[in-house]
Amino acid sequence: MTRFLRLIYVLIGLTLLSTSAIAETPFPTIHEPSDESKKCIHPEDEMRRNHMNYILHERDETMREGIRNEPASLANCINCHVEPNAQGEIAGIDSDEHFCNACHQYASVQIDCFQCHADRPQKYINRSKHSSSIQQQLQQTLAADTSNKGVNQ
User: Fold this and answer.
1) 19 is a domain residue
2) Distances in Å between the alpha carbon of 101 and those of 83, 85, 125?
3) Residue-level pLDDT at 127
4) Does the pLDDT of residue 139 top 70, yes or no?
């Protein structure tokens, strides 16, 4: 009987400790879009809980079915929520000020989306002549690879 009571006291104590710790920890700040006309595709509390499901679903549809430009795309989130600060600088994913980092640090979740995707809105990414030459180089490489396959067969 004493073991049982001790176990109950421990469980009650842990519950009280965790409840007080949660009450003292504020939610992270989410940077809302400056344009009031822009509304998120879902309410904030739903996005907090389910955004990863939306992104994964979108990823699967894009990769497997070729469906693009849906409202739940990562690019749409970034285009709305990542904006320049007062100095005109845009926070990258390595910065604490980046839109995604506040919640991901709060939840201790690693972000791997930006290993492939842009962490800034497309309109702020500098597309110089250098990027077009890279595209031309890629097309030339692919064309050369295609012609080499015909030779090897």
Assistant:
1) no
2) 14, 16, 20
3) 62
4) yes
